[in-house]
Each structure stands twice: as C-alpha cells, then as structure tokens.
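Entry 12.
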Amino acid sequence: MDEIKGIILDKDGTLFDYGKVWGPILSDAIAEGLAKARMPENRKNECIADFCRVVGVDGDGKTYPDGIIFRHDRLLQATVRILRITFRYHMNPWRVWNSVKAILKHEGFPIKEHLSKIEFPYVRETIKAMYDRGYILGIVTTDNQESTDLFLSRMGIKEYISFIRTKDSEIHPKPNPEAIKEFCREYDLESQEVAVIGDTVVDMEFAHLGKTGYRIAVLTGSGDKERLSECADAVYPALRDIINDPILFH
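Predicted 3D structure (tokens):
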C-alpha cells in the first residue's frame, strides 16, 4: 500500500450518527408530506412507518440500509417501493412524489435550529488528529452546500477541510469517482495515496471506482456491517475509533 497523504470523508452518517441527527427531522418531514398527500388518518402511523423504511430512517433514529438516503444507486427500486405505498394507502401520487423530492433535497428543514441543540462529541478532535498528522482532508457529500457549511461550522472542523464537494458542485454524484479525480489533481496526489471514509456501500464503491489506496467504513450511518465488511479494508463502530487505525495512525 502506498503512503496515504489525503483523506476524503463522507459527511452524514460518517462524521456523526445519521439516525440521531437526521431521524427526527426526516420523520417530521415525512409525516408532513404524507398529510399533504392525504394519507388515511386511521392508518397514519402505519403509513409513516412504511415510508420511513423506504427513506431509510425513522423518528427514533433507527436506520434501514436499503433506504433511499443510503442507496443512491437504487433509485429505481425505491421509486417502485414508493409507488406501492402510494397505492396501498390510496394517496395522491403527485403530492407523494413532491414530498420525496423535497426530502431528498433537504428543502424546508429547520436544520439550523436543530443543529444548535446537538453536540458532536469526538468529531473535532478526530479530524484535528488527522490534520495534525499532515493529511489533506476533503468532504464529498450528497447534501447541499448551505447545509454542509452549517454542519462543518457547528462541529468546529471547517478550518481543517481543504476540499469540499456537495450536490451543488458541478460533478457527478457518488459512486462516480469524479470528485476523487478532482481531489488528486488539485493536490497532486495519486489515487493510491488517498483514503476514503464513509458509511455506505455507495461510499465504498466510490472509493473502489476511484482506485483509492484505503477504504474505511463506519457503522454510524447505514449500519450495514455485513455488506460493508465485504467491500471495505477496515470497519469501525464510529469515526472516533479510527484514531487507532494502524494505517492512518501508525
């Protein structure tokens, strides 16, 4: 293995526990969207629960690895699942689809207010430890730029991040490796000198297609330990555990 000089990290589910942070927000958005789509009041809880499973997280912070938010490469299958729910509960399909688009785009979420109430233990010290070791750090996320800036500022790590690509950037989304290629060009790195840290199979596929030298998965996002173990070089419970990684912190 070549010496690792740069690290690209995913944001949601990698820097922090996805379910704990996004679960309540997405659950409220789902309930509001389904109400607009005229879900049956007598089956309200059942309907919301079914939809949460398709999206990938519920209000209690439980995550579902095959949800849309974790498997961006399976939008067609997710669309079929959403249509089945729509017909099962006799809802307005157009309004359901608009709700799905708003959720995926994080539109109208009270994220700033929500973040002010959340603590992110160990994130700053872990990222700072990577920075202090001399690694060039990048964030590649499917979240938008505004939300990403809010998160990085709230976690106190913006000063350590040299490279940011979001859904607003003019690049193909993961697992397309375009962001890895840009990172390497910008900092004169070989792909084998880059490590990728993520929480989903898509993140690992992104790293594989980008021919990176090291792939690390954490279980604070999709939590799909079995599948992640098959495609990652190392799997850790959370970001803070990487501080003991024998490759990055030898």
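Annotation: DSSP finds ten helices and six strands in the chain. Residues 18-36 form the longest helix (19 residues).
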